[in-house]
Amino acid sequence: MRLTATHASAARSGRVKTIAAVGMAGLALVAVAGCGAGRTNGGGSGSGLVIGTTDKIFSLDPAAAYDHGSLVPETQIYQQLLNFAPGATTATPDVAQQCGFSTPTTFSCTVKSGLKFANGDPLTAASVKFSFDRMLKINDPNGPASLLGNLDHTDAPDASTVVFTLKNANDQTFAPVLATQAGPIVDEKVFPADKVLDDDAVVKAKGYSGPYTITSYDKNKLVQYQANPDYNGILGKPKTATVSEKYYASSDNLKLDIQNGNIDVAYRSLSPTDLESLGKNDKLAVHSNPGGELRYIVFNLNTMPGNTPEQKLAVRKAVASSLDREALSTGVYKGTYQPAYSPVPQGYPGAIEPYKTIYGEKPDKAEAAKFLSDAGVQAPVTLNLQYNPDHYGSSSSEEYAAVKSQLEATGLFKVNLQSTEWVTYSKERVHDGYPVFQMGWFPDYPDADDYLTPFFAPNNFLQNHFEDPGLTAQMIAEATEQDKDKRTAIIEQIQTEMAQNFLSIIPLLSGKQVAVSTKGVQGVESTLDPSTKFRFSVLSK
User: Fold this and answer.
1) Is there a contact between 531 and 179 (Cβ–Cβ < 8 Å)?
2) Residue 187 — φ and ψ, nearest 5°?
3) How far apart are CA 533 and CA 535, in angstroms?
4) Which tens digit of pLDDT belongs to each residue from 157-209?
5) DSSP H stretches of helix in 192-245
6) Which of 61, 189, 192, 335 is 20 to 30 A from residue 294's alpha carbon, by CA?
7) CA 503 to CA 16: how far, in whole Å?
8) How far is Cα 79 from Cα 89, in angstroms, rounded to an integer?
């Protein structure tokens, strides 16, 4: 999830994700009144649930929200044509009754009859067309419009039919894209067609149709939800009528409140040490499932060290040969993250580990030195490495101190390590402010393409000046290939070529989704799935 880069249309879909840059990831900036003081009035008392988080909401308007903190309330209040049921990796009908390709370049959906928004306004095919037209027209730099880069235009020939005309035929990713943050359906009578609606207006107008409505909104402090009696969608009737989400400035207070039973669920983000400690508490349960999170280093190809493209590539290869991911996994994250040797995490169809094959599992000083000497690069190379201390979890400082130590241990690098708070970081990194920098990623949908096109297509969200026509052609080919085996082979080839010839990023770690609950809470593990959608409606106690 991703917040500040201006998104242009990339070769196939132009999909770029300005990590909430998921990346959609852990935001912990706003103080919460009364943290540790027990349940909030009207929030979690009685049969209701209280959920705690250090994430931060950027916007409730789907046109302006492309981050994990905003995805959580979006998941509760909005419906989409297609959505992911808990545990599912295939998008299935939600607002739609059915969807499918009517021709290679037209994707058609039939909208269920009798749907309405929480304010009583009818939800029809016209609402769907309006929502997608609006998303593309506003094209907010903080929003997910880039996910719709393959959408040429949308038609609603009647009240129950929506037809999407695509630029490239047989797009195998378009259906899951409809279930991402680019796909929420909004009320055309409420939302302006050409500008973002502020959060208070979104709450007041109730131009949404999801499982819950928002009854009280104190942004990034406390949000209270009530089950929507008119909801008719894939998630079914919410199991808990009232849910409150409480926002924390630090994971220390979040840990304290779940430990003391003042909240029912802690979801994002607790440190590995906290999770280890809480796992020993017999009144709590630690839930984890594969989540697809990726942590990686990005190189700005214009400003990184090296006088020529060949020298810059040699520096990147030398860095790749100097890292010990296993030490980061065990030493910093206590096994909650696993070594990543590809942009595509293991478990996704087509995922391989070319960085391990080419550069090894352990640091190889001799190989790293050879890359530099063969390209005429004098060691030690000065690397200005930037990381963020508040957005990707409190262990980022320890992680990047370890990266600095590993690189300098070879004698080939001198690392100037600096950190910047997220609000500044997210602006400066897209304006060539950082030669080498930390990023993280949560997938939009569970498919290998979501780890390739957003990173490596022209005008990608990283804004690091990487583009290769041959690789772009391969990404178009994999996304439009209908034969699964052929598509998998192309995905494997893209990963190999990236590792061998480009290395515009270096993957470090992949992580699970983790939440902690009191023992009486049910349904947590069922919503910790590859869609990264945390659904309040399946939770109960």
Assistant:
1) yes
2) -80, 120
3) 6
4) 999 999 999 999 999 999 999 999 999 999 999 999 999 999 999 999 999 99
5) 199-205
6) 61
7) 18
8) 18
The 10s digit of each residue's pLDDT in 9-31 is 333 344 433 333 333 333 232 33
Residue type, 307: N
Give the pLDDT of residue 512.
85
Beta bridge partners of 52: 246, 266
Given the candidates 3.30.460.80, 3.30.413.10, 3.10.50.40, 3.10.105.10, the CATH classification of the domain at 291-513 is 3.10.105.10
Q: Which residues are CB-neighbours of 107 under 8 A, at least 6 positions away?
A: 99, 100, 101, 163, 164, 166, 171, 174, 175
3-class DSSP string for 358-415? HHCCCCCHHHHHHHHHHCCCCCCEEEEEEECCCCCCCCHHHHHHHHHHHHHHCCCEEE
- CA triple 2-17-70, angle to 5 deg: 45
Q: At what angle do helices 469-480 and 484-497 cross, to 10 degrees?
A: 160
CA-to-CA distance for 111 and 107, rounded, in angstroms? 13
Q: In 3-state terms, what secondary structure has residue 265?
A: strand
154 bridge partner residues: 164
Instruction: Categorize the per-residue pLDDT at 307 as very low, low, confident or very high, splitting at 50, 70 and 90.
Output: very high
Give the contacts of 265 (CB within 8 A, at least 6 positions apart). Answer: 49, 50, 51, 52, 258, 515, 516, 517, 518, 521, 524, 539
Each residue of 270-284: pLDDT tens digit? 988 899 999 999 999
Alpha carbon distance 387, 435 (integer Å): 11
Quote the pLDDT of residue 42: 36
Kindly report the number of other CB atoms within 10 A of residue 374's CB atom: 11
Tokens of 49: 């649930």
Helix (H) or strand (E) holding 220: none
The two beta strands, 242-247 and 49-53, are parallel
Helix (H, G, I), strand (E, B) or coil at 123: coil
Sign of torsion over alpha carbons 42, 48, 54, 59: negative
CA-CA distance, 515 to 268, in Å (whole number)? Answer: 7
Torsion sign over Cα 330, 395, 463, 7: positive
Radius of gyration in angstroms for the set of CA atoms belonging to the chain, rounded to a whole number: 23
Number of H helices, E strands in the chain: 16, 17
Instruction: Tell which phi-psi region holds residue 42, choosing left (phi > 0), alpha (psi between -120 and 50) or beta.
Output: left
DSSP 8-state secondary structure symbol assigned to residue 116: B
In the numeric block, the tokens 């995490």 are attached to 345
pLDDT of residue 468: 97
